[in-house]
Design a protein that fits this description.
about 575 residues, alpha/beta, six-stranded mixed β-sheet, globular, about 30% helix
């Protein structure tokens, strides 16, 4: 049995060991729920009907309604709503477990050794593919090269995505397979890095240029996709994640989720955002889909890319990079293209989610929303994905037009040193500005961007309240004035995250009438400091009144590491 088959069998064994639905009473718990404003409510028990809907929330001293229940004693343990990750790449999480992962490598030499070993142990693979390299974490001071890859694998193509997914590292065989040479022009919104003083490709392609190689990769089979999806679901449930916003859903991804829904193995709730307008039309047709499979799947809208990322210097800035004074970043859409695509989606009531990291990109998105909001009225819930670097003058505009800032706390702790180098000390006032966005009236929805960061909401929660990384650095927090409260962070991972994907009233809170999605923890996160929150153990994860993860037979390794 190969690795993928063993993994999918493991998923099936964990998730199938769940009793059939029955009215259930969960008693003696320290229950916590939160509304969109961060106001908490506490309760001591829950009643769940056989459809997985919460029928009663019991306060201290309340007696359950008369009836015959399957009773569970919580023994005083803490229950919070199931965590909603507002920005993930579901299939990327799964495929990341089936391909080469370089995210733990600390140097170029270590990465090259891992690549060589992977190629040696997988002689049948026509391409070596993977992700996770990070020249910043390697303290390399430059990008890696094709020649360095050639030294360890020259007999077949190698194609490795950077940790943020905004650059790819190719060996010479991969460049040849893609037809990339001295005469290949940089595509719009992309850049082919060249050897100094020449037009010869150096081996790294940034943003849209990556499509030149991606187009030549062997396509995964449907069976491969099903295995990867099973692995992704298992990973997320182990972390207490019960719902996600899947950013960049392809038609192949959508069909994978539909197959799981049809055969009863769709466990997560997935709010899908199509990978561009063409995929949006193909999946949704005349508009967003209805909620399918008992509120487990819906196409909400479309994901658009406006710029790149800081790590590859593709984030679009108003003034040049401090460490690259001839570079403002990359615009993957011009202003007219952006507005046309947003308008096309809004015309049919698709929700629009726009990737914007640099201050210039965020300003352009805010301008576009202000213009289009005059035509496309109503409850649009415009989303900006990442919103990492803002001009402080633009922050008040995030409180207008129902804008959602979909942000990832672990990006702040991972990227802070790089942000200081890329921007310089005088341009950080609008960096990862969570508290300022809330003060302006904006809505925060938190997520992970997994597999870029670990899909670990507790680690993200710890960063959100402390602005410190897993090692407690910097002591006292980085620009700690932008930290949020424990309750605000919980809201951003639950009630607000559900609202950001039109899931309110269905999930995101522990309330009568909502789906019984919740997580049982070994301690109360509202009474814990940041480092203790990182150490909290997810004991159980429930979705729709079914226990889908139990730590007792399957101890979960927690990954709370940061990247740079």
């Amino acid at each position: 049995m190969n690795r993928g088959c063993r993994a999918i069998l493991s998923v099936a064994l964990v998730l199938a060991a769940v009793p059939a639905h029955a009215d259930t009473l969960i008693k003696d718990i320290n229950g916590i729920s939160v509304d969109r404003e961060g106001r908490t409510t506490n309760f001591r028990g829950l009643v769940i009907d056989d459809q997985g809907i919460i029928t009663h929330v019991l306060q201290r001293g309340d007696d359950p309604p008369e009836g015959n229940y399957y009773e569970i004693d919580g023994n005083g343990r803490t229950i919070i709503p199931g965590m909603v990750d507002s920005h993930v790449h579901v299939m990327g999480i799964g495929f990341g477990q089936l391909t080469l992962d370089l995210s733990a490598t600390a140097s170029l030499e270590e990465a090259l050794a891992a690549i060589a070993e992977y190629a040696r142990t997988h002689p049948d693979r026509p391409w070596i593919v993977g992700r996770g390299w990070n020249q910043e974490a390697w303290s390399l001071g430059r990008f890696p090269t094709a020649a360095e890859l050639d030294a360890v694998v020259a007999d077949r193509p190698v194609w490795l995505k950077r940790v943020d997914g905004h650059a790819g590292w190719a060996n010479s065989a991969a460049l040849r397979a893609a037809g990339i040479g001295t005469g290949t022009a940089d595509p719009d919104g992309g850049r082919i890095l060249r050897k100094a003083g020449s037009r010869e490709p150096a081996g790294v392609l940034v943003d849209s240029a990556m499509k030149l190689v991606d187009a030549h990769l062997p396509a995964p089979r449907p069976e491969d996709r099903d295995i990867a999806f099973g692995l992704a679901q298992r990973s997320l449930l182990r972390m207490g994640v019960t719902a996600v916003a899947d950013m960049g859903t392809s038609i192949e991804d959508w069909q994978t989720y539909r197959r799981a829904g049809d055969n009863g193995t769709l466990y997560l709730r997935i709010m899908a955002y199509a990978d561009g307008v063409e995929a949006m039309e193909l999946i949704g047709g005349p508009g967003p889909t209805p909620w399918l499979y008992d509120d487990r799947l819906r196409l909400n809208g479309v994901k658009l890319f406006l710029d790149g990322a800081l790590g590859s210097r593709g984030a679009l800035l108003k003034t040049p990079y401090a460490d690259d004074p001839n570079n403002h970043g990359l615009s993957r859409l011009n202003s007219t293209q952006l507005r046309n695509l947003m308008s096309r989606a809004a015309l049919d009531n698709f929700q629009v989610a726009i990737h914007a990291i640099g201050d210039a990109a965020n300003a352009d998105v805010l301008d576009a929303i202000a213009e289009l909001a005059e035509t496309y009225t109503g409850d649009r819930r415009w989303r900006i994905e990442h919103a990492q670097i803002l001009d402080p003058a633009d922050i008040p505009r995030l409180g207008m037009h129902g804008i959602i800032a979909s942000m990832q706390p672990l990006h702040q702790s991972s990227d802070r040193l790089m942000a200081e180098v890329r921007l310089g000390p005088d341009r950080l006032d609008g960096a990862y500005a969570w508290r300022s966005i809330l003060a302006a009236g904006g809505t925060l929805a938190f997520g992970s961007d997994a597999p870029v960061e670990p899909a670990d909401p507790l680690a993200g929660w710890a960063v959100a309240i402390s602005r410190e990384d897993a090692k407690g650095q910097p002591f006292g927090g980085w620009r700690v004035q932008e930290a949020v409260s424990r309750e605000q962070a919980l809201a951003a991972y639950t009630a607000n995250a559900a609202w950001a994907g039109f899931g309110e009233g269905r999930f995101g809170r522990i309330e009568v009438g909502e789906r019984a999605d919740f997580v049982m923890l070994d301690r109360d996160p509202l009474l814990a400091n940041a480092q203790d929150i990182r150490r909290i153990k997810v004991l159980e994860t429930w979705v729709g009144g079914r226990k889908l993860y139990d730590s007792t037979p399957d101890e979960p390794p927690r990954s709370s590491g940061d990247r740079r």
